[in-house]
Design goal:
alpha/beta
């Protein structure tokens, strides 16, 4: 056996911001029959998967299998672990409204360090970006104003519904949607009750539209794959070295696969829904298709 000398190189050039701008533009272009998408994360949106996925996809570089696993693991009403800092926790206060020619982002001031690089880059991207930060009362006021400003009355609003949702009216239980019909705090401006959002607008399930985008392979997804491949290369090289040292007499399937098994175990936490590995060495590899392997 000979281990070829090769390298996997991941460019140090950051194209994260360019990709994030391309992602928000694709989201603007994906509104098939909708006037706008609304994403409300945290308790105000009952921790729905679609809004959480949108923020992760746009601001935290997530995509593909990682978001698919999150969808499978998430339970309606379960809090989200954004990260290990106060800034990450503050992402729970975010809401985003995306129309074909505008993007409105409301966020808590504490989340600014995470959102700022992306939002600053978007500002020069001709996407009609508007950003506002503030407290809970300001959030309700800005939500009402943004909906009324960006979406024509009677227009179609796309919202990713939780799996258990049977009708749009159930979304009125979301605190921010319920607040749309309340009087609100006059200190941030004068906006009376706007009525029930699901009555003023045609609210439809946009899960199928946005999930398709979230799970597509793009530049960031490829970068993640290459970074993972570097770890696989290390385990592969160690496996080859062990096989060479053992020689023909001491070579067993267990020894051959030991390093690859270690790599598989390394990835278990990130892929708990994946089936176990199926690998055989030599002539017995013909048995790989047998049932029960």
């Amino acid at each position: 056996l000979h281990s070829a000398s090769y390298r996997i190189v991941v460019s140090s050039m950051s194209y994260d911001l360019v990709t994030s701008l391309n992602r928000i533009r694709r989201l603007q272009a994906a509104q098939d029959g909708c006037d706008a998408f609304i994403f409300v994360v945290g308790v105000d949106g009952r921790y729905n998967w679609g809004a959480t996925a949108a923020v992760r996809w746009l601001f935290q570089k997530w995509s593909g299998a990682a978001l698919s696993r999150q969808e499978g693991d998430s339970a309606e009403g379960s809090s989200v672990n954004w990260g290990d800092s106060e800034a990450h926790d503050a992402l729970d206060e975010t809401f985003i409204i995306v129309s074909r020619d505008s993007v409105f982002v409301f966020y808590d001031d504490a989340a600014f360090p995470i959102l700022e690089p992306t939002l600053s880059f978007w500002a020069g991207g001709d996407i009609g970006l508007v950003t506002v930060s503030g407290d809970e009362d300001r959030k309700v006021f800005e939500f009402k104003r943004a909906v009324k400003t960006l979406i024509r009355e009677g227009g179609t609003v796309g919202v990713p519904f939780p799996k258990s949702t049977e009708s749009p009216a159930e979304l009125e239980r979301w605190p921010l949607f319920a607040a749309f019909a309340s009087e609100g705090d006059a200190s941030h401006g004068s906006l009376a009750s706007c009525g029930f959002l699901t009555i003023k607008y045609a609210v439809v399930d946009a899960t199928h539209l946005v999930a398709r985008l979230f799970k597509e392979v793009d530049a960031l997804a490829v970068q993640r794959c290459l970074e993972s491949a570097m770890h696989l290369r290390e385990h592969w090289a160690m496996m080859v070295r062990d096989m060479v040292r053992a020689g023909r007499e001491g070579l067993t399937e267990e020894l051959c696969l030991e390093q690859l098994s270690l790599f598989f175990e390394y990835g278990l936490d990130a892929a708990t829904s994946s089936p176990p590995p199926r690998a055989l060495i030599g002539a017995r590899s013909a048995l790989i298709a047998d049932e029960g392997m």
